[in-house]
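Input structure tokens:
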């Protein structure tokens, strides 16, 4: 069956499907690897035109995850029913553009370049963001939130209001002033403090003449793992009795099917201990071993708390098999920086993603996903195998929705 429609509404099926992608700069390569594999499995089941956006009711992304979300959900200029990028193109996209978004130097010149960057960070952001702005605008053009092929949710943080601002297709449909350009939203959610400049833009309602301004930085300050944010947006839609969603109680999570993709955490045995941290001043917290420990700890804590809440919720309602969280908790410390764009590091991130896909799940992986029944041959269970299972669930759900839509059309005629 060839897929040439956007995702049919969940009101026509049994499940509400969510894809969530963490923030992490160049480490977006890791979830990009998982998404390419998942889409390939969907194409094996439903034909070469199958795309991620055809199967998920909501795609949520923070920071680099927001950019991936846009790539998966923004309509192509050549075919409005298909996204501008296939999932298999995400990793090549990062390999091509990351070195220009986060320029770096190696060798002797590298030391002088690092010193200049340190000086820049004292008086402003590490990078000027010009290439990111141009690349994002070229990619997305004037596409707006309500024009996406499926619903998207992108967390940001407004520095003027000092509170999170959540952009979503849902809000854009009901409020013209929230119907921002997708490019502006992606630039804003990626503006990590000290790394990229904050982003200012305005939206205008030409019917009323009213306008709204946004002063946006990295959505990771609100939710580096946006799974709960996406669930909250859907809950509000159900509460408002949106026709798109099934008639059910707002907090009935039994219907949810969630795939949540992380961007990697550092090896356990190289994390900083209290004896070392106790001696740090401001430069220690913001620049240590090629990382920014304060920012890294903040983002990791945010992701881990969301992991815990969502996993406990799904376990409590007996639906652990409807949640898949993929997170590598043992990436080398050298791969942790979100802006390290050397060819060696980028290719290393590709290998991290590929290795995690195919290596047997560890005991920690079982705990994270609340897998209680371990197969006799524990080597048989990998994330590639689990994504294959989820691809079948997603395919079956889409087929059911399309069938029900055809039945409804037949009864009306």
């Amino acid at each position: 069956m060839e897929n040439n429609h956007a995702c049919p509404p969940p009101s026509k099926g049994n499940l509400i499907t969510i894809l969530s992608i963490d923030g992490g700069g160049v480490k977006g390569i890791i979830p990009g690897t998982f998404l390419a594999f998942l889409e390939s499995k969907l194409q094996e089941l439903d034909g070469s035109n199958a795309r991620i956006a055809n199967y998920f009711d909501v795609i949520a992304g923070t920071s680099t995850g927001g950019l991936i979300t846009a790539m998966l959900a923004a309509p192509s200029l050549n075919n409005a029913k298909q996204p501008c990028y296939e999932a298999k193109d995400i990793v090549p996209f990062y390999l091509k553009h990351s070195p220009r978004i986060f320029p770096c130097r190696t060798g002797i010149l590298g030391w002088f370049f690092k010193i200049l960057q340190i000086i820049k960070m004292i008086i402003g952001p590490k990078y000027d963001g010009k290439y990111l702005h141009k690349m994002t605008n070229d990619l997305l053009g004037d596409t707006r939130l309500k024009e996406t092929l499926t619903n998207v949710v992108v967390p940001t943080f407004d520095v003027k209001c000092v509170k999170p601002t959540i952009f979503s297709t849902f809000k854009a449909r009901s409020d013209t002033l929230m119907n921002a350009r997708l490019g502006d939203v992606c630039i804003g959610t990626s503006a990590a403090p000290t790394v990229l400049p904050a982003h200012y833009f305005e939206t205008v309602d030409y019917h009323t003449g009213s306008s709204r301004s946004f002063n946006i930085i990295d959505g990771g300050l609100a939710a580096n793992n946006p799974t709960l944010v996406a669930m909250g947006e859907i809950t509000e839609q159900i509460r408002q009795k949106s026709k798109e969603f099934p008639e059910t109680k707002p907090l009935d999570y039994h219907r949810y099917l969630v795939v949540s993709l992380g961007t990697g955490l550092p090896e356990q045995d190289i994390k900083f201990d209290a004896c070392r941290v106790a001696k740090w001043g401001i430069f220690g917290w913001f620049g240590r071993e090629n990382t920014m420990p304060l920012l890294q700890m903040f983002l990791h804590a945010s992701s881990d708390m969301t992991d815990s809440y969502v996993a406990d919720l799904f376990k409590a309602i007996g639906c652990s098999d409807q949640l898949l969280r993929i997170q590598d908790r043992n990436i080398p410390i050298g791969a942790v920086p979100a802006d390290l764009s050397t060819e060696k590091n980028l290719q290393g991130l590709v290998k991290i993603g590929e290795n995690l896909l195919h290596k047997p799940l560890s005991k920690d992986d079982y705990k994270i996903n609340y897998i209680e029944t371990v197969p006799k041959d524990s080597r048989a269970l990998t994330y590639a195998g689990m994504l294959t299972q989820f691809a079948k669930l997603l395919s079956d759900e889409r087929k059911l929705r399309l069938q029900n839509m055809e039945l409804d059309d037949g009864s009306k005629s």
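The radius of gyration is 21 Å. The longest strand covers residues 151-158.
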